[in-house]
């Protein structure tokens, strides 16, 4: 249930109440005794899903724009049986949705402060490999709101709101990358970080420099969940969505890539950020339109429909281009994982093979990363061979191991064998 309040400007009471009577709207009137611009308040009880229909009907009948409209939530209604419950689909009205969207795009000073703080937290969490710290940064980060604000602005025909949402997203991403890059430059080479730190080897960073096609599916689903939480006024879901499709951590990784001079880190993490942002915007835009949100004025409907279509096509095209990178990362990641798996499996089969003097082989390290796949670098495998006491191996052991591993993996491999004479208790 909603309570729609119409603040009636001075001199318009009779005309407005006549309009309500003509539309057969049930209402109550409260006199305004202050010396302000309004002389009365008309309160109209409306079912949740009927707010849009009632306001559209009143506007079509001549409701002026100078009448201030306030929509309030009602905890319970103990009378009024026979209200239009069949119109209650659980969605916020157009005016309520726009008001929520405005709240999701805070003042720039507030937005910038929260974003810088969340970027600092995320960068520190990435460098210390702290998942809990990164989750904290996700909750603080205000980037999800402007994405929804931009989409709401487009579908309701509010150009200023749409532009503000897009502007905040763009500035927010640049601010996040810059903050992380500056902090990375300040910390690099200090006692706070290990000497010669390779940021790509940090698990929390590595997770964000190897985005796959699953990242796109996650972003599309998160965009849909964000819209449902917004239109059905379930704010707590937005927190979960913000964590699921976090925008600040991968943007912070891109900043660290700049600080460490790692173009591959910048490319892959930057791709993940853009895919997330674009997928959220696309899903929100399309889903809001499908749900049925439209501009107030019917004469703006065709223009808004064209804008929704144009933006959807542009965003979809950008996602398609970025998907090429995701496909490349997916295939490259599969290739590196496949080589590691095949090496481990073959070494297990070789252990105890009489051809290798009953040696036991263990994979110590497989140096084969994503950039090695596309730069043509040969995988480097370090193998430890346990030898029984008194056993000896020929000088060609490394070559024989390499031949077996190359046969198993189907690729050229450089092999280093570390020999260890082992005794085991009986």
TrEMBL record:
Pfam families: DUF389
Highest taxon, organism lineage: Archaea
Protein name: TIGR00341 family protein
PANTHER family named in the record: AT15442P-RELATED (PTHR20992:SF9)
Originating species: Halovivax asiaticus JCM 14624
InterPro entries in UniProt: DUF389
Keyword DNA damage found: no
Keywords: Membrane, Transmembrane, Transmembrane helix
Transmembrane segments: 108-128, 134-156, 168-189, 209-230, 237-260, 272-292, 313-334
